[in-house]
Amino acid sequence: MPTEFRNHIAGEWVAPSTGAYFENRNPADVDDVIGRFPRSAAADVDRAVESARKGFRIWSRTPGPARGAILKRAGDIMTERKEEIARAATREMGKVLLETRGDVQEGIDTAYYAATEGRRLFGHTVPSELPDKWAMTYRRPVGVTGIVTPFNFPMAIPTWKIFPALACGNSVVFKPAEDVPHTAHLYVEILLEAGVPPQALQLVHGFGEDVGAPLVSHPDVPVISFTGSTETGRVIGEICGRMHKRLSLEMGGKNAQIVMPDADMELALDGVLWGAFGTTGQRCTATSRLLLHDDIHDAFLERLLARTRELRLGDGSKADTDVGPLIHEASLRTVESYVEIARSEGEILCGGARARGDGLENGWFFEPTIVAGVRAGSRLATEEIFGPVLSVIRFSDFDEAIRINNEVRYGLSSSVYTTDVRTSFRAFQELDNGITYVNAPTIGAEAHLPFGGVKETGNGHREGGWEVYEFYSETKVCYLDYSGKLQRAQIDNY
Q: Is residue 284 annotated as part of the catalytic site, yes or no?
């Protein structure tokens, strides 16, 4: 009988109000049931928010350095349990252990960064324009934060959001993706063990329409952070705008790697293989487009095909696996639909079908796919696929590559391989993305730098680094007039 998990609400592990559960299955072997998780509803969200409001009063009054010390302990526990968490994440999400170990390490790095920020929630002290008057600002927490996360980074992305929210003194209601509830459960266990007050941290499992929607629209949740599709983010944006909520959106991408004739070709090959087929292409930063200069197009593509055909598909927990499964059947069907589009918009050079063979029959495996001859502006060149499909586009000069990169509605990440410093700095200035790499793939964010994009990738806020602490806190301006008389700024001063 599979293990039956519960929500964490009001300091207790509790069954859902519905009495209903859903199964969490291994995408590499759908007969492997990881556990049964609560299929919660709006009533569970209401109870979680009520508890989080009480928890906020406790946690927000805890000094920032003390909050940081608790988050540091959480990082220590994650370090001790790193391999256990990585294996749990691989089992329910599918990507290879090399990647889930990195996923957990990113969470550890974020914990330690957040711990130091508990001492660095700086305000400003500035001179007043009036005599015998003091002026300053400080950062204070906002309230209950609603955290909605995706499946592809089951530990890293929740930590990007929850550690800074807690460091700033907010309480949290956490709704993880229904595809990766077990990793979320382990993360909450670790936070509670580290010393986060139980009422300051709520975990509510379930589906978007049943839990995510009530959380987003709840009147007592003034802050929402969401990572997911642009379409869902648009709906959330409308709700939060109408209700005057603070909202951070991190959404889709259609990222390009540009290879110039002067590039280190072996390095560029390594970059596109990792960027396109790491996490089975299920990253918002995945390399979905490969832009090849005319001078190196044919030779580079020949070498890329040879390397791609060597990739080994299989269970991510096995040492010899390079590429794991897609997350579920619906994702596989989406990838198949884009392969059908590819038959009319390009030439499929390798892959293009569900993977079969020993050890693959019971999972959602799809062959790494390369499509050549893709036209700029076509569906394959502009729409996010979220799978192991790479579209190859030819260009003649860097001006054309810039135009192709910038034509899509997304603006998350870009990459240029070149040894020319002028090309490098033009890329930084002219590629319309939140992140640009030179001589590195489109993936590889570091925990102490801001992460996010422009256009339909985001709404101006950033995850990670120092900027996210501004999102989870608000500025309070304080004046102290010790003159003993009425002073009217701008009136008495001039």
A: yes
